[in-house]
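Q: I have 298 residues here and want to know how they pack in 3D. Can you give me a structure?
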Amino acid sequence: MSNLPKIAWIGLGIMGSPMAENLLKAGYTVTGYTLEADKLQRLAAAGGTAATSIAEAVTDADVIITMVPASPHIEAIAYGPDGILAHARPGTLLIDMSSITPQTSIDLAKAAADKGIRVLDAPVSGGEAGAVEAVLSIMAGGEQTDFDAARPILEALGKTIVLCGPHGAGQTVKAANQLIVAVNIQACAEAVVFLEKSGVDLTAALDVLNGGLAGSTVLTRKKDNFKNRDFQPGFRIDLHHKDMGIVTDAARTVGAALPVGTLVANLVASLRAQGDGGLDHSALLRGVERLSGHTTES
């Protein structure tokens, strides 16, 4: 029998499925629950156990990990008679890896403490590729002792793992991450259209740019999306729209100006309003193309 903690995983989407599978590869026992039957079948095929309810998934777990899209989703699975807090054992560690508002994380930690349940907020960056390759950046908020207990699990999921402060701090850092990523993608998209309209070899240009100060993880990860106009979602515009709402609201609360970030948030919202919400966030290129009269859409 393994001495590793038993894990319940709630939310098996684009990120959650490969992350849960990486824990299975690391030797952990994982029981999962999600609304999509095919995702449960995928978990079972990888060696996990599919649960039929949140209660079934979490009742015997030592650690519960959640990865859902937004604050309303975490509230739906955490609270109420069918939720995590009603069925998890006292002493259980709840690691929420969703990207939600900092206040939602703070409120969850307080409610969980009343049940004797420990909480870390631990959102991630790296997209689907980072989840598959187990090289995510994980930014945590919570108590040092809980972070130390979670670290071996997090090391099976990511490469850069940092405790950023108290409850909610991980979500604040994730909001800053999403601000930087969106602005970076927008700048790359504008450069791509500028290069193409100038008649420059795009592949050569992006290669040399990525080798200099303009290089970035965003450009490394997304340059093929730009070149091939491949916008199959690794991280959907819909979710980045949600995250830009989080960062602009949080910045307003603390009195931080986001002049460029607010503009890019509006561009993300515009792309979503044009029906591209289900595409990868590299599809910001489509917005620049439309503004430039340079569409390559079929």
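Q: Anything worth noting?
A: The mean pLDDT is 96. The two ends are 56 Å apart (CA to CA).
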